[in-house]
Design brief:
Largest sheet: 7 strands, mixed
Strand content: 15-25%
Structural class: alpha/beta
CATH superfamily: Spore Coat Polysaccharide Biosynthesis Protein SpsA, Chain A
Radius of gyration: 19 Å
Order of helices and strands: EHEEHHHEEHEHEHEEHEEEEEEHHH
CATH topology: Spore Coat Polysaccharide Biosynthesis Protein SpsA, Chain A
Strand order of the largest sheet: 3-2-1-4-7-6-10
Number of helices: 11
Length: 311
Amino acid sequence: MKNAVCTIITPDYLHYALALRDSIRETEFHDFHFYIFIAASSEECQLNVSDESTSCLFVDDLSKSEMGQAIHAKYFGVDMDKYRWSMKSVLMHYLLESKEVQKVFCVDCDINFYSSPQFLFDELNNSTVLLTPHYRASDPGVDMDNYVLSFTDGIFNAGFFGCNSSGMQALRWWANSCLHLCEKNAHKGQFVDQTHLNLLPVYFDGVHILKHRGCNVANWNMLECKRETQPDGTVKINGVFDVVFIHFTPTTIHGIQHGRDTCLQPFLDGYERRNKKHFPEFVLPQRKKKVAAKPEQENRFVRKLKAWMKD
């Protein structure tokens, strides 16, 4: 199979991965092989996914390369979040190099599709890398906090990343960047694996920025990607774009459930249904309550940035 979709999970998140796979199949798109990288050794993780178009990979498989070994040595067992974030590029590189895959998307497991991804694979006919912008607030006068996050959390969302076999140099660069720096630090302008992507259009040719507003719909782009219910009951983004895939972060789910993003309720119902199919005890994740930071604890960089913008 020349097309692949992959995701990275811990063993207890298998139902999320299978729900993602099922969501793509429900769009009537079947021209892809689905790879699940489980961040555990094959010996300690006995999971059976009996499907000829679905394969599981384990730490053993991806630790054979030099970069996979280096990331494993630095993060595995020390900070598993950083390990999983840093392994996205290694996983994609492995599939392109070892599985005769020509085009691959790495997708966070809390994403579900509602329109066929065929056009996304087609984009890789003339591009080497696909990036999806967050589409945060473009006007600081409307939502300053959301606007500033573009500079501290990244222009692009790392929950969806597309690449073909000509983009392997970019993947190696991303992996190396994460090996050296993968942290949440607004003072350094760093947000784990994500802010590195800001540089891809600068240093690499063939990087395509998706302008389809129905891609990566989430709470952070409610202003720029307005959800509008049409007379026939369908939902369009900005009255033009079909919903392609939604990123169901806890905050996105919270907004839907509490009346701020009600147009997405039918899509959330489908997300819940798919997860319950594979894990009947599934409960939608809830947003963590934010604890207000004391003024002296607030990041120095953020304080200076806010002060400068007020002047």
